[in-house]
Amino acid sequence: METHSWVANNNFAAVEQHAPRGAASSIRAYCPQIKNHQLSWWVTFFNIKNMFELIDTELKLNSDKFKANKLQKYFKTGNGEYGEGDIFLGLSLDFLNQTAKKYKDIEFKDIKKLLKSKYHEERTFALIILVKLYKNKKTDKKKIVDFYLNNLATINNWDLVDMSCYKILGD
What we know:
- The chain is mostly helical.
- It contains 10 helices and no strands.
- The protein has helices spanning about 10-20, 25-30, 35-45, 50-60, 65-75, 95-100, 110-115, 120-135, 140-150, 160-170.
C-alpha cells in the first residue's frame, strides 16, 4: 500500500496541510474518535488522494445493501424501466444532507466526478452540494447554472431533477 509523503509523519497538522483540501477535517468530523496518530493510517488505508475519493469512501462505508435493494425496486432500475442501470448504495437523503455540510470547500472537478458516478446517491450528493453553493450569497450563480446545464445528461432521474432544477434554474 502506498504511503503518501503527507501521511508519513503521523501528524494531524501535516495531513491537514498536505491532504486534499478538507480531507483531515472531514475525516475528523466523520470519525471523531480517530486520534492524531491514527488519522494518517485511515487516509493511507483508503488510499485517499482527493476530495472525490474521500466522499466516495465515506458514502460507501455507510452503504446499506438492504436499503439499496429496496431503492433499486422503487426507482424501477430493471431492463427497459425508466431508471435502468441506476445502482444504489442505500443511503438516506437525510444522511446525504448532513454529510454534505462537511464538504463546503469541494471543487467543481470533484462535483463533476460525483455527477458522473454510477451510484445514484453520489449524483444526489453532488446536486445537494450544488444547491447549497447556489444558495450561498458569495457564489457566482451563473457559473453554477452553466455547470448544471453542461451536466444535464447525468441528472437522469425524476428525483434528481425534482431536488435541484427549480432551486438552480428556477431562481
